[in-house]
Structure formats: structure tokens, C-alpha cells
Amino acid sequence: MASTSKKWARDVYFVASRLYFLLILLQVPLFRFPCRIGTCTTPIEVSLSLLYANGVVPGGLVKALLYPGAIAKAIYKNNAIPSYGKLLEAYKFNNMKESPATHDLQNLEVIIGSYLSVAGALLGLMKSGRFSLTGILLITWGLDKQVLFRNYTSVVIYPTMLIALLSTFFSIRADVTKLIRFTKPKASQRNEHKQNITRVRYSS
């Protein structure tokens, strides 16, 4: 029973972590949020725009992380694939808006959540962890807070956020193992009950 649960948990973790990694890397829109480049729809845009604006990461690394998503967007929209050399211009990274410190403080959950989401997507390929789930929950709370308390109509959460949330939960191997172990006894008890009923019928 224990070995079977671990095998199932390993398989579920493998699929969920890869799915979440693709959601982040290919920049599948999860939300709409005003940021330094105008409007961000993915955690990777929020993270890289802030890191690049503060000089933490070089432009070469930014382009390397953005390019897979740029290709995916171009194919999905049937547009021409953008030039790698002009990728920063295409994403408006060279023409960022000045953002006051109060704006970043008001959106701290979204910012920190985006960092954790991107880091969790990369680390999840090697080891199970809770970075991704924590990041997605922080982003969701931060966006909900903007809508509920500040009535920001420009902030939107897309249905794809639910896919990201589920994939981050199932990418935590320990929790999946506990869930499988919790549900399996119930299934075995139902099978045993059916077998007992069958035996009673045959005996009668």
C-alpha cells in the first residue's frame, strides 16, 4: 500500500510540476495587473520587469526567459515570431513607467507571489516544494484585495489561475501521498463491502 501510494504520488507530482512549469515559461495569461511595463498577465512579467528595472538581472537573462513565451504567443495568435534582439522593446522593458514606492508596497503580495511562483516553477523540476503554491495563493489574495478594497476594474483573474493553483497543489509530493493514502482505505472498504454482499447472496 505504501509503495503504491508513493508511486502514484511521484507520477502525479511529475505531471503537475511540468504542467505548472509550462504555464509559467510559456506565459499563459493568469491575470491582468498594472505593472512597470503597462499591463502584466503572468508572474514572469511581473518578476522580470521589477528585477530588470532595479538592475538585478541583465537584459540577456531577461530575453532568455521571455523568448519561449514570446514564441508561444506568436504561434497562438498566428503572428510573426518576434526578433530575439528586439524582445525587450516588444515587451516594453526599455520604456518602463516610473513606479512610486507606495505602489509596490500596496501590491506586495502580487510581487512576492510572482517571485515565488517563478522560482517554484524552476525548482519544481528538481524537487517538490511549496514555493509555487505559496506564490499562487499570494498572487490570488493580492489581486482579490485590489478588487475588493480598492475597486480596481483593471485587475482581473483569469480561469487559468485555477489550473495553476491545482497544478501547484499536486506538485507537492508529500501532500499528494497523504491524499492518496487517505482515499485508498475508503475505496478498499467499499470493495470489501460489495464482496460481503455478494457472498451473502450466494450463501442464501
TrEMBL record:
Lineage, opening ranks: Eukaryota, Viridiplantae, Streptophyta, Embryophyta, Tracheophyta
Bilayer-spanning residue ranges: 12-31, 51-76, 115-143, 155-176
Species this chain originates from: Anisodus tanguticus
Protein name (database record): Uncharacterized protein
Entry keyword set: Membrane, Transmembrane, Transmembrane helix
Source organism superkingdom: Eukaryota
